[in-house]
Write a structure and sequence with these properties.
By secondary structure, the chain is an all-alpha fold. Helices cover 84% and strands 0% of the residues. α3 runs antiparallel to α4, α4 runs antiparallel to α5 and α5 packs antiparallel against α6.
Length: 133
């Protein structure tokens, strides 16, 4: 029972969140070193934990999903990256609004990914959408 109380204390929650932030930083570092497989494992676990602790729409969960999308993009898994970016943009539009900088940044990721897939027409539509804001 004492352990259960300790795990639910505010200090343990803060410590858990700090561990998750460290995991995201590690995932980004691995991605930067092109260690995509390792980064993917770390970030997938991070996304799972953040969903569990904070919820699917929390800004930190969405941030971790964006990192996972970047990892997929770095691996050339553009379809997987695009799926994540579109999902995150939908959530950010609903939670933050269409003109929020985080939402716009996500739209830019979608456009860039479409361009990487040689879907230049679709990318152009997204870029023009960004210019209208």
């Amino acid at each position: 029972r004492a352990v259960q109380r300790r795990m639910s204390s505010p200090d343990s929650v803060i410590a858990g969140l700090n561990v998750l932030q460290t995991a995201q930083t590690l995932g980004i570092a691995l991605h930067s070193q092109k260690k995509y497989v390792e980064a993917e494992v770390v970030i997938r676990e991070l996304v799972s934990k953040r969903r569990e602790m904070l919820g699917a729409e929390h800004r930190d969960t969405l941030s971790a999903l964006m990192v996972l999308g970047d990892v997929f993009s770095g691996q050339g898994k553009f379809d997987d990256a695009l799926e994540i970016y579109i999902d995150v943009r939908t959530l950010r539009e609903r939670v933050l609004g269409a003109e929020n900088m985080k939402t716009l940044s996500t739209t830019m990721n979608i456009a860039t990914t479409l361009q990487n897939q040689h879907k230049v027409g679709e990318a152009e539509v997204m870029y023009r959408e960004l210019l209208r804001v």
